[in-house]
């Protein structure tokens, strides 16, 4: 068995045991970490691998959450069907939004997605659809219980549900990046003219990537709605989109594992900053961000990769160089 398989088996065992040894609140926090990791993974596919900057992914996160809440609360749909529906809605909207956005690049695309993130909370408060969205009051959900009579608490069941979805999401993203589609996306990011000359349809690949990224955000929003048991317009402000972008930068751009590190950062660092200073928690948060940018320019994933490579280099036995014979 290889070292990678051993490490994966150990992580799997830890993930299974974790909800039985932690308190309910810690289990809730770890569940939110997995939810954030799914959203960050989708944004990293778009920004890190495709090179399209998005400041509005919090909008797709909110659309996924509201779609799930409306289907469950208003239509009585089981959450097992509501989550795939939310993913499909966000994938279609992301693909359609990506079509006109292809005319924009760089900061102009970022501004267009920024507008999407700003306008969504106002749309959710609109009186014309208040019957469905709940207006400023939002929608309250009931935490689902474990099915089939499983001896699990509600928090533990949600933990395992999010763990299963996150595992599948990361496996799909890994296969996507390593496959022909991923190589085409990376080629478009690095050399779009050369990729187009090689026969790659840049417009179609960019739209598909936008749709996949939005689908990941919608899945994360659906799971967040079930975990938090509430959706409201102010929960999906532009600060959510900025926080997601911060997460992929700190975790590591164009890395799969960086989504996990970024999720840990955006989940726990703000709470730690609030504990350090009640008066100015955002100042502490900003100082930590600046420190991360200086110490880890490639993100946490890049730092861990560099340290691992250096440790492996030192652990390898050095072969003695035989003395050269004099002519």
TrEMBL record:
It is found in: Cell membrane. Pfam families: BPD_transp_2. The chain crosses the membrane at residues 33-51, 58-75, 81-99, 106-124, 157-177, 214-232, 238-261, 282-304. Keywords: Cell membrane, Membrane, Transmembrane, Transmembrane helix. It is a multi-pass membrane protein. The keyword Phosphoprotein does not apply. The keyword Secreted does not apply. This is Branched-chain amino acid ABC transporter permease.
């Amino acid at each position: 068995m290889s070292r990678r398989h051993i490490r994966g088996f150990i992580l799997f065992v830890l993930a299974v045991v974790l909800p039985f040894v932690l308190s309910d609140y810690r289990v809730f926090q770890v569940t939110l970490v997995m939810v954030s990791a799914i959203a960050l993974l989708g944004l990293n596919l778009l920004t890190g691998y495709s090179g399209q900057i998005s400041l509005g992914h919090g909008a797709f996160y909110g659309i996924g959450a509201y779609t799930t809440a409306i289907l469950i609360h208003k239509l009585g749909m089981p959450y097992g069907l509501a989550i795939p529906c939310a993913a499909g809605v966000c994938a279609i909207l992301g693909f359609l939004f990506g079509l006109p956005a292809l005319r924009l690049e760089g900061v102009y695309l970022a501004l267009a997605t920024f507008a999407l993130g700003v306008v969504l909370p106002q749309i959710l408060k609109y009186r014309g659809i208040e019957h469905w969205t709940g207006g400023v009051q939002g929608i309250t959900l009931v935490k689902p219980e474990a099915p089939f009579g499983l001896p699990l608490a509600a928090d533990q069941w949600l933990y395992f549900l999010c763990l299963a979805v996150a595992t599948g999401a990361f496996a799909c993203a890994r296969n996507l990046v390593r496959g022909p589609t991923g190589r085409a996306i990376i080629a478009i990011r690095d050399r779009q003219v050369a990729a187009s000359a090689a026969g790659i349809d840049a417009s179609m690949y960019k739209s598909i990537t936008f749709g996949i990224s939005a689908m990941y955000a919608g899945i994360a929003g659906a799971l967040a709605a079930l975990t938090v048991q509430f959706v409201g317009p102010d929960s999906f402000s532009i600060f959510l989109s900025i926080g997601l972008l911060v997460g992929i930068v700190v975790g590591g751009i164009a890395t799969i594992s960086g989504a996990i590190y970024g999720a840990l950062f955006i989940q726990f660092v703000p709470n730690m900053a609030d504990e350090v200073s009640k008066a100015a928690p955002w100042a502490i948060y900003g100082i930590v961000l600046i420190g991360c940018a200086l110490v880890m320019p490639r993100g946490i994933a890049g730092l861990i990769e560099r340290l691992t490579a250096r440790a492996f280099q030192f652990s390898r036995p050095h072969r003695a160089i035989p003395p050269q014979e004099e002519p």
